[in-house]
Amino acid sequence: MSSPRPHFLVLTFPFQGHIAPALRLARRLLAEAPDALVTFSTTEDAHRRMFPAKPCDGDGAKVATDEHDGRLEFLPFSDGTETGILPNMAFNAYLASFHAEGARTVAEILDALAARGRPVTRVVYTLLLPWAADVARDRGVPSALYWIQPVAVFIIYFHYFHGHGTIVAEHRHDPSFVVEFPGLEPLTIGDLPNFLTDAVDPSNIFHNVFNTSRDLMETLDKEGPKATVLVNTCQELERHALAAVGAIDVLPVGPVLPSGNVSGIFKQDDAEYMEWLDAKPENSVVYVAFGSLATMAREQVDELLLGLEESGRPYLCVIRKDIKVALADAEAEMLHERLKNGMVVEWCDQVQVLSHVAVGCFLTHCGWNSVLESVACGVPMVCVPGMSDQRMNAQLVVRDWRVGVRAQVDKGGVLRAAEVRRCIDEVMDNSEAAAEVRQMAGKWKQIVEEATGKGGSSDRNLMAFVDDGARSAV
Ligand SMILES: O=c1ccn([C@@H]2O[C@H](COP(=O)(O)OP(=O)(O)O[C@H]3O[C@H](CO)[C@@H](O)[C@H](O)[C@H]3O)[C@@H](O)[C@H]2O)c(=O)[nH]1
């Protein structure tokens, strides 16, 4: 009997910041393994948003694409809701439904693919769905966790649930208390993901993220020596942290960068902003974006735009539609009237923008995808971290790679106009310090290019993973 083709089922939570790196990895797997198949699977609602124009076929809204000779297929699973996740939805309840329905329908997908003669040989799952490993194990299919944040953050979660949790929990209300994790410089409680501090309390709106993180680490324990963790980083970016992961089989395979047409659940504005960028001098533009989840109050939008105007530099600022909707309509209109030097869009092709020669600085919330994209494009950053991994990510940018500065918010958590201006000057003016940041950004761009290029460290790790997948398919 001939052995089945290697077939990866890539599963992801329906956030843009999770879908993007998962889809990028899916395409990298197809490029590395010319005979492999990939089925990409997220929730039904996210799937509909990714393919608004495509008719769904009868058996479960399958969308095959022409990419990679049709070897990439999209097949959604259910999260038990009609609408998908909404901004005002109780996150704890959503995660419970996502788990129960997701586990049931992913099991059905595995069975259906096997029945179609395309059995899955490896499940790859991102954050917030530890149950995927259990579903795979029940069917005898090996799985790998794809960690889409820095390995430094993986270390924090891992050690939190393997001994460090008690001390963090005891001091979780003291942001300046110092904690040490293997392989990392000392950190304060304030640097840790809020899911391991505030969300420990059962009344917290993200308490189920804390529970799910614990389940994820237990899942790795259950897998034992077979546990594989792919990480969207490269060994050059996080050498010390990677040296401290010990017995776990951690494979840095990143940064995975975009390719292909479909990129996620948001649709970009007309490419008018590219023409606008074309008309600007080299390294003159400040690009501003806060990812796909962060919200902004009226006061913050005002301070931000004021600071950008006062910087005297041209700027391209993303203010998502849902943020605008949360402001009164009339006020959102006024946004445009007040702009002299800048352009506000609801969504853009961020990597295309960061790759443009006119862009000289990225004011970012430090989502890991944004950070990696900026490093890969050689653009210095002004860091305004918010929740989750973002404060740790900012540490890497400022302290470890020295490709940016960190902005300070006031006591009320507002980033003031004067601070916006100060930080932009710090990375864009003619000072020696600014020149050094720009030089470091150029250096890291090159390092990352080498790591992900043919024969680079991340490329070799991905090859090893693919070869392993091919072996387990035999
Ligand atoms: O106008 C825009 C704005 C953003 N993006 C893209 O959207 C993604 C945003 O991802 P990220 O920068 O990681 O931010 P979030 O959407 O906030 O991501 C969530 O998920 C990440 C991965 O787990 C975490 O690092 C973040 O903290 C978490 O908020 C990136 O690929 C951007 O290129 C665009 O294409 N156009």
TrEMBL record:
Its EC number is 2.4.1.-. GO terms for molecular function: quercetin 3-O-glucosyltransferase activity; quercetin 7-O-glucosyltransferase activity. PROSITE patterns: UDPGT. Keywords: Glycosyltransferase, Transferase. It holds the Pfam family UDPGT. Coiled coil: none annotated. InterPro entries: UDP_glucos_trans, UDP_glycos_trans_CS. PANTHER family: GLUCOSYL/GLUCURONOSYL TRANSFERASES, GLYCOSYLTRANSFERASE. Belongs to the UDP-glycosyltransferase family. This is Glycosyltransferase. It comes from Digitaria exilis.
